[in-house]
């Protein structure tokens, strides 16, 4: 489940980023910011997909991805509901839709991480202390 959620996030982020960079739909956001966000999504998508291909994805990086996704989702709601940018109606709908999708990825990743942690037992026992 975790690897699937990471790969799905990676593919969706890459596709959204690529569409944003190539098509640049008019959503009411400054063009430079929109282009920067699109490029970020392309590189993020590649990285998260790669993480999902690992035999055992690094728990710390997965947690970072989950936190980042939650922050992105919250920021999307704020962007769509405040006057930060003069978003068009389509822009508001797209920002909210992708924010909801990103929140869904975070939930799937958290469920997958918990499931993987339970199955392996990692994270459920205290680590032995090293005496230096």
UniProtKB/TrEMBL annotation:
This is Integral membrane protein. Keywords: Membrane, Transmembrane, Transmembrane helix. The chain crosses the membrane at residues 35-52, 61-78, 84-108. It comes from Lentzea jiangxiensis. It comes from the Bacteria.
